[in-house]
Amino acid sequence: QKEVEQDPGPLSVPEGAIVSLNCTYSNSAFQYFMWYRQYSRKGPELLMYTYSSGNKEDGRFTAQVDKSSKYISLFIRDSQPSDSATYLCAMSANNAGNMLTFGGGTRLMVKP
Amino acid sequence: SAVISQKPSRDICQRGTSLTIQCQVDSQVTMMFWYRQQPGQSLTLIATANQGSEATYESGFVIDKFPISRPNLTFSTLTVSNMSPEDSSIYLCSVPDTQYFGPGTRLTVL
To answer: Is B8 on the interface with A (CB under 8 A)?
Structure first.
Protein backbone atom coordinates (compact mmCIF):
# COMPACT_ATOMS: atom_id res chain seq x y z
CA GLN A 1 0.00 0.00 0.00
CA LYS A 2 1.32 3.43 -0.95
CA GLU A 3 1.74 6.03 1.78
CA VAL A 4 -0.34 8.53 -0.20
CA GLU A 5 -3.17 7.44 -2.46
CA GLN A 6 -4.68 9.62 -5.16
CA ASP A 7 -7.12 8.71 -7.90
CA PRO A 8 -5.26 9.15 -11.20
CA GLY A 9 -8.37 10.15 -13.17
CA PRO A 10 -8.73 11.55 -15.72
CA LEU A 11 -11.47 13.71 -14.26
CA SER A 12 -13.44 15.54 -16.93
CA VAL A 13 -15.78 18.38 -15.99
CA PRO A 14 -17.57 21.21 -17.84
CA GLU A 15 -16.37 24.76 -17.47
CA GLY A 16 -17.82 26.41 -14.36
CA ALA A 17 -18.17 23.18 -12.39
CA ILE A 18 -16.90 22.70 -8.87
CA VAL A 19 -14.02 20.23 -8.83
CA SER A 20 -13.14 18.05 -5.87
CA LEU A 21 -9.72 16.40 -5.74
CA ASN A 22 -8.77 14.09 -2.89
CA CYS A 23 -5.93 12.19 -1.31
CA THR A 24 -5.78 9.70 1.52
CA TYR A 25 -2.69 8.85 3.50
CA SER A 26 -1.56 6.34 6.07
CA ASN A 27 1.26 8.09 7.98
CA SER A 28 -0.19 9.89 10.99
CA ALA A 29 3.07 11.86 11.36
CA PHE A 30 2.25 14.02 8.33
CA GLN A 31 1.57 17.57 9.46
CA TYR A 32 2.12 19.70 6.36
CA PHE A 33 -0.02 19.28 3.28
CA MET A 34 0.44 20.76 -0.14
CA TRP A 35 -1.28 20.78 -3.49
CA TYR A 36 0.69 21.27 -6.68
CA ARG A 37 -0.52 21.90 -10.20
CA GLN A 38 1.56 20.54 -13.06
CA TYR A 39 0.96 21.47 -16.64
CA SER A 40 2.23 19.18 -19.36
CA ARG A 41 6.01 19.36 -19.77
CA LYS A 42 6.37 21.75 -16.82
CA GLY A 43 7.57 21.46 -13.23
CA PRO A 44 5.01 21.33 -10.37
CA GLU A 45 3.68 24.70 -9.20
CA LEU A 46 2.72 25.11 -5.54
CA LEU A 47 -0.98 25.97 -5.20
CA MET A 48 -1.88 25.54 -1.56
CA TYR A 49 0.06 24.90 1.62
CA THR A 50 -1.66 24.00 4.89
CA TYR A 51 -0.61 22.91 8.32
CA SER A 52 -2.54 20.36 10.37
CA SER A 53 -6.32 20.12 10.12
CA GLY A 54 -8.66 22.78 8.84
CA ASN A 55 -9.52 24.78 5.75
CA LYS A 56 -7.60 27.31 3.73
CA GLU A 57 -9.02 29.40 0.93
CA ASP A 58 -7.20 31.26 -1.83
CA GLY A 59 -9.33 32.68 -4.60
CA ARG A 60 -11.14 29.85 -6.36
CA PHE A 61 -9.15 27.21 -4.47
CA THR A 62 -9.98 25.72 -1.06
CA ALA A 63 -7.84 23.13 0.68
CA GLN A 64 -9.25 20.97 3.44
CA VAL A 65 -7.38 18.67 5.79
CA ASP A 66 -9.04 16.09 8.03
CA LYS A 67 -6.26 14.48 10.01
CA SER A 68 -8.65 12.24 11.96
CA SER A 69 -9.67 10.60 8.68
CA LYS A 70 -6.25 11.03 7.03
CA TYR A 71 -7.98 12.70 4.12
CA ILE A 72 -7.23 15.92 2.27
CA SER A 73 -9.16 17.70 -0.45
CA LEU A 74 -8.72 20.49 -2.94
CA PHE A 75 -11.82 22.23 -4.26
CA ILE A 76 -11.77 24.39 -7.36
CA ARG A 77 -14.77 26.68 -7.85
CA ASP A 78 -15.86 28.02 -11.23
CA SER A 79 -13.38 25.77 -13.00
CA GLN A 80 -11.77 27.09 -16.16
CA PRO A 81 -10.17 25.33 -19.14
CA SER A 82 -6.87 26.80 -17.93
CA ASP A 83 -7.25 24.65 -14.80
CA SER A 84 -6.72 21.56 -16.96
CA ALA A 85 -3.57 19.99 -15.54
CA THR A 86 -2.37 17.23 -13.25
CA TYR A 87 -2.88 17.97 -9.56
CA LEU A 88 -0.48 16.40 -7.08
CA CYS A 89 -0.98 16.23 -3.35
CA ALA A 90 2.12 16.11 -1.19
CA MET A 91 2.79 15.95 2.51
CA SER A 92 5.58 15.92 5.06
CA ALA A 93 6.07 15.28 8.74
CA ASN A 94 7.74 18.61 9.44
CA ASN A 95 8.66 21.91 7.87
CA ALA A 96 12.38 21.66 8.44
CA GLY A 97 13.18 20.91 4.84
CA ASN A 98 12.16 17.27 5.02
CA MET A 99 11.30 15.48 1.84
CA LEU A 100 7.77 15.43 0.52
CA THR A 101 5.78 12.29 -0.12
CA PHE A 102 3.64 12.70 -3.21
CA GLY A 103 0.42 11.20 -4.39
CA GLY A 104 0.34 9.86 -7.91
CA GLY A 105 -1.51 12.88 -9.28
CA THR A 106 -4.99 13.38 -10.72
CA ARG A 107 -5.35 14.54 -14.28
CA LEU A 108 -8.12 17.15 -14.61
CA MET A 109 -9.71 18.23 -17.88
CA VAL A 110 -12.07 21.21 -17.89
CA LYS A 111 -14.03 21.37 -21.12
CA PRO A 112 -15.29 24.69 -22.51
CA SER B 1 9.37 32.64 -3.23
CA ALA B 2 12.56 31.14 -4.61
CA VAL B 3 13.23 31.24 -8.33
CA ILE B 4 14.82 28.04 -9.56
CA SER B 5 16.28 27.43 -12.99
CA GLN B 6 17.55 24.23 -14.54
CA LYS B 7 19.76 23.37 -17.50
CA PRO B 8 19.27 21.71 -19.88
CA SER B 9 15.49 21.86 -20.20
CA ARG B 10 15.55 18.66 -22.22
CA ASP B 11 18.00 16.27 -23.81
CA ILE B 12 18.07 13.08 -25.81
CA CYS B 13 20.99 10.83 -24.95
CA GLN B 14 22.45 7.54 -26.03
CA ARG B 15 22.54 4.49 -23.82
CA GLY B 16 25.73 4.26 -21.76
CA THR B 17 26.47 7.98 -21.71
CA SER B 18 26.13 10.42 -18.81
CA LEU B 19 24.32 13.73 -18.46
CA THR B 20 24.86 16.45 -15.87
CA ILE B 21 21.87 18.58 -14.92
CA GLN B 22 22.39 21.97 -13.32
CA CYS B 23 20.12 23.68 -10.81
CA GLN B 24 20.48 27.36 -9.86
CA VAL B 25 18.53 29.11 -7.08
CA ASP B 26 18.25 32.88 -6.72
CA SER B 27 18.81 32.76 -2.96
CA GLN B 28 21.05 30.88 -0.59
CA VAL B 29 19.59 27.62 0.70
CA THR B 30 21.15 24.99 2.91
CA MET B 31 19.38 22.06 1.30
CA MET B 32 18.37 21.26 -2.26
CA PHE B 33 16.39 18.23 -3.30
CA TRP B 34 16.56 16.22 -6.49
CA TYR B 35 13.44 14.37 -7.65
CA ARG B 36 12.64 12.07 -10.53
CA GLN B 37 9.29 11.86 -12.27
CA GLN B 38 9.05 8.86 -14.56
CA PRO B 39 6.50 8.91 -17.39
CA GLY B 40 2.97 8.87 -16.00
CA GLN B 41 4.26 8.67 -12.44
CA SER B 42 4.49 11.01 -9.50
CA LEU B 43 7.65 12.47 -8.03
CA THR B 44 10.19 10.37 -6.18
CA LEU B 45 12.97 11.87 -4.11
CA ILE B 46 16.44 10.84 -5.31
CA ALA B 47 18.63 12.65 -2.79
CA THR B 48 19.14 15.68 -0.60
CA ALA B 49 22.11 17.86 -1.52
CA ASN B 50 23.73 19.61 1.44
CA GLN B 51 26.36 22.28 1.02
CA GLY B 52 29.67 21.15 2.42
CA SER B 53 28.80 17.50 2.94
CA GLU B 54 27.93 14.38 1.01
CA ALA B 55 24.46 14.09 -0.45
CA THR B 56 21.96 11.85 1.31
CA TYR B 57 20.40 9.28 -1.01
CA GLU B 58 16.99 7.66 -0.69
CA SER B 59 16.43 3.94 -0.86
CA GLY B 60 16.94 2.67 -4.39
CA PHE B 61 19.30 5.45 -5.45
CA VAL B 62 23.10 5.29 -5.21
CA ILE B 63 25.90 7.79 -5.57
CA ASP B 64 27.62 5.89 -8.38
CA LYS B 65 24.53 6.20 -10.54
CA PHE B 66 23.46 9.72 -9.48
CA PRO B 67 26.50 11.67 -8.28
CA ILE B 68 25.61 15.09 -6.90
CA SER B 69 27.69 18.19 -6.39
CA ARG B 70 26.84 21.16 -4.18
CA PRO B 71 29.71 23.64 -4.50
CA ASN B 72 27.84 26.57 -2.93
CA LEU B 73 24.53 27.62 -1.41
CA THR B 74 22.86 28.53 -4.71
CA PHE B 75 23.92 25.75 -7.07
CA SER B 76 23.83 21.97 -7.44
CA THR B 77 24.34 19.41 -10.16
CA LEU B 78 22.94 15.91 -10.61
CA THR B 79 24.64 13.51 -13.00
CA VAL B 80 22.76 10.56 -14.45
CA SER B 81 25.52 8.05 -15.20
CA ASN B 82 25.72 5.15 -17.61
CA MET B 83 22.19 5.86 -18.78
CA SER B 84 19.66 3.29 -19.92
CA PRO B 85 16.16 3.81 -21.36
CA GLU B 86 14.76 3.27 -17.85
CA ASP B 87 16.36 6.57 -16.85
CA SER B 88 14.05 8.46 -19.19
CA SER B 89 12.28 10.83 -16.81
CA ILE B 90 11.83 14.40 -15.80
CA TYR B 91 14.44 15.40 -13.23
CA LEU B 92 13.52 18.25 -10.91
CA CYS B 93 15.33 20.16 -8.23
CA SER B 94 13.57 21.89 -5.39
CA VAL B 95 14.26 23.81 -2.21
CA PRO B 96 12.60 23.48 1.22
CA ASP B 97 10.31 26.02 2.86
CA THR B 98 7.24 25.14 0.82
CA GLN B 99 9.25 23.20 -1.74
CA TYR B 100 9.34 25.24 -4.89
CA PHE B 101 10.39 23.26 -7.94
CA GLY B 102 12.53 24.07 -10.91
CA PRO B 103 11.03 23.69 -14.39
CA GLY B 104 12.56 20.24 -14.76
CA THR B 105 14.88 18.53 -17.23
CA ARG B 106 13.17 16.13 -19.58
CA LEU B 107 15.59 13.30 -20.37
CA THR B 108 15.04 10.71 -23.06
CA VAL B 109 17.52 7.84 -23.34
CA LEU B 110 17.57 5.90 -26.58
So the answer is: no
